[in-house]
Every structure is written in structure tokens, then in C-alpha cells.
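Input record (one chain):
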Amino acid sequence: MTIPDLRPTGHASHSIWLVTDGKAGDLAQVEGLAMALGGRTQRRDIHPRRPWAWLAPAGGPDPREDPRRAGSRLAPPFPDIVIATGRRAVPVVRAFRGLDPATRPFTIFLKDPRIGAEAADLIWVPEHDRLTGDNVIRTLTAPHRFSAARLLALREAPPRAFFGLPHPLLGIVLGGPSKGTRYSRDEIAAFAAGLREALPKAASVVATPSRRTPPELLAALKAALADKPGFVWDGSGDNPLPGLLALSDALLVTADSHNMVSEALASGARVHVLRPRHLNPRLAFFIDALTREERVRPFTNMLDFAGQEPLDSTPALAEAVNAAYSRFRTQRNRRMQAP
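The corresponding structure, as predicted from the sequence alone:
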């Protein structure tokens, strides 16, 4: 499946496959890195059957998705680069890496593959993960699809849904419970009360929930915003997140998603985080680091519309990938030329 909306910004000669099982959060990262690299990008979603899905990240790939088997979904001709993420993609990446060095693609894995740094040629992990190695790149924030150029284009040509909304505009991005994270009823009530107190400073509000957002949290948000210009996305049509990130003067984001907070930090708007008491320890490390650097502010009942310097690790990650890929090609050429 070709990705039509990825705009090449780097070396257009690159051909890139994105290998995931289709989860939205995983796609956000691999597509974001691919956009920064540039080139011809295709999605190659995998759906391993049992028992291969059970065994991942250990074991081999489902034969239907084994690049070593003729007729598989991942059979040649291979791309220059494979970018993968997710537990089920690990056996596929290992299979790619075990192919003939003269013909195999350069492999990149995003996040800890849980089997060690030898799983791929290059691995990116957030700083709150423990994996280290000579081929491991660590950054505080995650790769994403919202480059400075894309945000600027959205500001110059805003989506229709944002026409006429007065400023300052508050953008709200809601996640929800996940592994190690939960929101109590008391916390939801406190959030709603704090939002009602803070809202007089905002002229309009646009909010986008996720499928994880608890109904109680969404209902509290809608009640607080009942008399405010703007809207809460109902899941129909295009997600307003791109316009929200580009056009908001301040952002309020739940702390339960590394991706969501990373995207918000790239916007240049002041980022406030709604942090539950029970937050995944790795995410707590991430939010604590951002708080110490004054990149985010805990939300209680105050909003700051002053703006801040954008923080985006994606361009630096893309530069590191290009350098590693160049070394990979040089070494491959030397092997092929050796007598």
C-alpha cells in the first residue's frame, strides 16, 4: 500500500517499506521518520497467524510474511530501507537482516525489540527505555509526522474546520488508560473543575479524544466546553489533530502517550500536561524530564498562551539514519568489490 501523503524531504532515491501490524501509534512513528528521510514509501502491514503471533518477538516470521520465501508478502524486489516497529514485526526484521548482505535492505527498528540490539542495523529508543548499544539511538521525544514545514503549511492554509475560530485557541488532546496508567473519578472531576476555571483565558477550544478516552472524561470535557466556541471531534471525518497542533496558542495533553506529548512539543505552543497519579513509570520518567527542562507544565487550573521553543527529535534522528545508511552502503560496496 503506497502512502500518498508522505512528502519527500530528503533523498528521493530512497525506497522505504514501513512494516507494522497497523497500530495507529506505531504508524505515527514509522511514517514520521519516513517523511523526514524522504523517498518512495510503501506500507507493508503484517498480520502473523498463530503460533507465530504468539511467539513474537522470538521465533521466526509467519511463512506468508517471510522475506526469504518466494511469493511472500515481503518477497523481492526489496527496498533500500525497512522501518519497522511493534512486537510482531521483530521476526520479520531479523529475517531481513539475515539475508545476503549484497541484496538485503538496511533495517531500522523503532522502540526496544526486546531481544537485544542485534535485531536490526539501527534501533531508535526513547530515553526512558534501557536498551543501549553502538547501533542504538536515544532521544527524549518520539519521531512523528508534524515537521516544521508541515505545520507552517497548515498555518498558511488552515483546515476549514478552524475557519472563524477566535484566538487564543486552546487545543486539547486526550488519551486514556493504558498499561500502567489509569484515571480515577476524582481526577476526572478535578480536571473538569480546573478546566472550567482556566477557560476564560481561551477564546475558543478544539479537542480530539482517542479510542482510549474514558466516557467519563469525554463527558466532563464536553460539559466544560458547552458554552465555548470550537468543537470536540466526534470521530467522523478527518481528525483535526494536524490543524489543532498548527493553530493552537496553547495545548493541553494527557500524559499517557509518548507520541501525543512529542507531537505537541513540536508545535511551538505552550504544552500543559494532565498527569494522573497512576502513570506508567517509563512515561513518568519522560514527563519528569520534560518538567525539569520546563518543556511542559502540569495542568491544574491555569493556562499560559506565551508559546515556547519547539522540541522535535525527528530531524536529528533522520540525519543519524542517513549517516548509518551511507556507512551500510559503503561497507556493502567494499564487500562486493573485494576479490
